[in-house]
Input
Amino acid sequence: MNKEEKIYIVGHKNPDTDSICSAISYAYLKNKTSGTNKYHARRAGQINEETEFVLKYWGIDAPKYLPNVGLQVRDMEIKEIEGAPDDITIRIAWEFMQESETTTLPVVAEDGQLKGLLTVGDITNYFMDVYSRTVMSEAGTRYYDIAETINGIVVSGNDYAIFNRGKVVVATSRPEDLAGEIEDDDLVILGDREDTQQAAIRAGASCIVITGEMSAPKATMELADSRNCVVICTRFDTYTTARLINQSIPAKSLMRKPEELVSFHPDDFVDDIRETMGKLRFRSFPVLDRSGRFLGMIERRSLLTAKRKQVILVDHTEKSQAVDNLEQAEILEIVDHHRIGTVETLQPVFFRGEPVGCTATILTTMFRERGMDIPKEIAGLLCSAILSDTLMFRSPTCTPRDVGAANELAVIAGINITEYAKQMFRAGSNLKGKTPDEILHQDYKRFTFGETTFGVGQISSMDLEELKEIKTVLRPALEEECGKRGVSMVFFMLTDITTEDTILMCCGEGSDELVKESFGADVVDGDAFLPKVVSRKKQLIPAFMQSLQK
Output
């Protein structure tokens, strides 16, 4: 199955405004410079209120959700096979499989729903085990299909009627002895003798097959019409006709029904289906969409050739912050402004990491290096990201490049930085209706140093009373987070943008000591006051890492 090449540009889990806006802006830049449309922005988590305000303000849709970049069925080679209707004969099915060099034939309805699978093994087993003379009537075989299978024609009777009662008889006895061999509704294969033909009709046959001729005697036709007996003629001799006639049964009589099959969906992860495919003896498996429509077949060997998803990471280099199963993807690029973390690549990649306050500042530089004009909406996104990450230039992570880029972008976007930032921060600190767990994970990241894993969340607001209100409801969420996914300590920064101070909520064994060691601050009732600390990236995390290293 031909798949459109896609390269996903994605930020970290629990994405902030920089993560989302940088992904969108970089996808725009890459598509414009490559002349393609294969770069797609994605998000690895739920966007927060601040980012939602920004996207709505600039009329940009939120990127689609991509929580996992593990290998999926859609990444495997899905072999497209034309489905066959269930009323085709097994002879036609066999010919189709030989021509298409496939061992499995999907049987589908008109709307594409999978009705079953027919394999070469099913057909060969059928011919090896055919001992019953009623197999054709049990399968409900059409007279038209019988005639087509033996290269014959229906010369009398309803060719679309179904042979559904009786057995197959080869008439070798004298005409006067046939009455003892033929029962009502039998199908009789015989030669060109009129007396034998008429004797079979009088004995109750529902169909006679005349071999060696392409026409029937007038008297035989008249008798057949009066007895509602179908007459089929073929040039094949009796032996050949008897050998081929069982190939006229419909494929649906041999196929395996959907309830007997193991099928997969394009979104299924390879890790989840690998064991199932290994246990079963089938070489191929059907792939269906969520509505049950047949898409194609995958084989066990396709597991070895599955194409890794291609991703570009922005605004993070920590594996703990990245989408799940990142190790199964092919990382093409990384653009970030944090410390170099724990993400590993299988081959050299384009890496651009700069000590600025925001990934969007780096992207603004990349637009300029390529001599590209920045559209108003993209400028608005990039400017929003810089204002968010630098707390409107108050964060110690802010550099002159960030200020210069934001001012330049504000002119293109047509906004007043101060007024716009106030609206953005107000939207971001509006947490009405949110649960404590949702507040905790709105901007939350996990960090690993040695054997220690800790989590840090942050909310910045220009309203001190709102921060106090958040603190009263957030403590149970911090306690519940401790111990999850190996996290031993949890911290939450309540940052006052106006005063540039932070109340740091602490939870977990050793958290009080780590804060004391890092900042010399006492933890009282689970909280520490950190004056002039506003940056998680440049102030809090480096201090923690240095203390843990000691």
About this structure: The longest strand covers residues 452-461. DSSP finds 18 helices and 22 strands in the chain. The radius of gyration is 37 Å.
